[in-house]
What we know:
This protein is of the alpha/beta class. The protein has a single domain (5-116, 153-234), classed as Rossmann fold. The protein has helices at residues 5-15, 80-84, 92-104, 117-120, 123-134, 139-145, 156-164, 177-185, 205-213, 223-235; strands spanning 28-35, 44-50, 58-62, 71-77, 109-114, 170-173, 190-194. The relative contact order is 0.14.
Amino acid sequence: MGLPKPTVQLLLKENQDHACAEAPEICVKVMAIADLPDMFGEFEVVAFWNNFDRKEHAALIHGDIFEKEEVPVRLHSECLTGDTLGSLRCDCREQLQESMRQIAKMDRGIVLYMRQEGRGIGFINKIKAYQLQDEGYDTFRANEVLGFKRDERDYDLAAHMLRSLHVKSIKLMTNNPAKIKDLQLHGIRITGRIPVVVPPNKYDKFYLETKKRAGHLLDRTQPEEFLEQAEELQDNHHWEQAE
């Protein structure tokens, strides 16, 4: 059971008059909603448009999330090399699939699929960063050598998408404290953390070790413990986005 048909029609109707193209501030618009059963279970896909990066982001919904509290949410950034081509250099595909597998077993949940390739630097620059990593740079330093921040992403759009779906509060499926901080700064109420832990392989071991040094919790720390550690990391200015 996904979103009831009346709810789908309500979401489409309240979004049809959003004049995002003319809006001076960030505007996110639900464009279409359709069933999308996949290898993990029954999902619906919501297609979004926005006037900020003008990319077509998506939400994969399982169950009825409308006006619900503590909805499990995976905030996933696009990774063509991992998600689609099966690269072993990162754990992106494994995290996406594990999140969808977990959500499909729950009463409800959302995967926000954000078109932010290479932590927001784009596909070409991501491959340039891979070149630098082949020469010995870690994933963060490679971005810096190319003239970018360690992470160029911003989750304001993701927060707008959750509000467009009328989600009241979430449990974030993440290992990255920075994602909690960023969503909270954009007004999303987060009540806990659901770990997404996948085993390393010989190609992404150094990548995962680098993420761990940046503050990622690559274990099954319970939500309360995580939020305490997240607050401590924020106080010490150790928030590094790297997922």
